[in-house]
Design brief:
Pfam families: RAI16-like. The protein is mainly alpha-helical and 236 residues long. The protein has two domains: 143 residues, no CATH class; 90 residues, no CATH class. The chain has a two-stranded antiparallel ribbon with strand order 1-2. The protein is globular, with a radius of gyration of 18 Å.
Length: 236
Amino acid sequence: VLRILEKHDPGRGGAVSLRFGPIPGDEASAVQNYVEHMLFLLMEEESGQGGAMGTILEFVVVENVMEKLFLWSLRREFTDDMKLEQLRMYKMLVAQAKQPLLHHKPILKPLMMLLSACSSSSTVGPTAPSKSSSSAAGLTCTVGPSSSAVEAELVSLLHQLCHVLVKDASVLELFFHSSQDQGAANFLLFSLLIPFIHRDGTVGAQARDALTLIMSLSSQNSLVAKHIVENTYFCP
């Protein structure tokens, strides 16, 4: 996976802040096929002895594969098709993985970056170098408005993630920290759901249900309660 991303990486020459237009079909297909194969293996992998990371998960975490995939997309034209592919990829991982993937920042951080990029026109990308992704240092990219199909997939994933938070409270604090990494006001999931709660149809229903799940957490978690009181209009 890393080899195919590096082979098709337009930032290898050092001009990482430039946009390079649409990704050729054969290039996108090659990356997608390799990544899908890796993810299917990851979903089937069990935890190691004593709950240790499996070999594939360890590789994904240590090599920061998910962030490299997201940044590879940003260096080109981040089309709706690419957004849909990556949103569905995370939905599949969250639903079917046998290991607790969201506990690992190299998986959670690019997920939050993707959610932010798919929500509306925004500028995304890391602001400082990291050991695991030095070639991406300083990359920023303006992402255009998403289509209704992307918004529907986004809300579906947000709804799924809220169910995860209810079942596994240990993930909640990680989401708060990752939200801060993205410049959000403490809790990105909450902020992303608000624009959709008055929508008709499935999108609106899922957004309202997800928000209700978050509100239910406020009675058990002071971080959620404090965010709702201090950063929203739900408590006048």
